[in-house]
Hints:
Keywords: Hydrolase, Metal-binding, Nucleotide metabolism, Zinc. Helix content is about 50%, strand content about 20%. It is α/β, with parallel strands linked by helices. The protein has one domain (about 1-135): Alpha-Beta Barrel (TIM Barrel). Helix 3 links the parallel strand 1 and strand 2 (about 70-80).
Amino acid sequence: MFGVAHSLTSSPAAVFKATTDVITEFSQDGVVYLELRSTPRQVPSTMTKTQYIQTIIDAILECRQTLNILVKLLVSIDRRQGQKEAEDILDLVVKVNQMYPDIVVGLDLSGDPSQGDFMEFSSVLAEARRYGLKMSIHCAE
């Protein structure tokens, strides 16, 4: 499923459209609070991880103008990608949280629970807490 979604969202324009479409569908279903979760993705020569997250934020901001739904973003850390990647994502989240504290509210530790050791991420999660970020941890999917 994620492979198909990734192939359809390989540019900022596609990420923007997918995000606004998802938010619009939830709003049409009567949802008034939505937490989106997404792992920053880089597409070579098309989009950086920062551009990817900024595009999602831009879509949330646009939807705020016309829809009656409150949308927040939890940026995901895929436990399969290891601690260095988690540290890089935390750095990105801290920066965007400072610019958009009402949108980017925290981290989501996700991915295949049989991959990676939870303790490998404990220092990153502790650092996130020091920044006041909220957390969601998937541990037995």
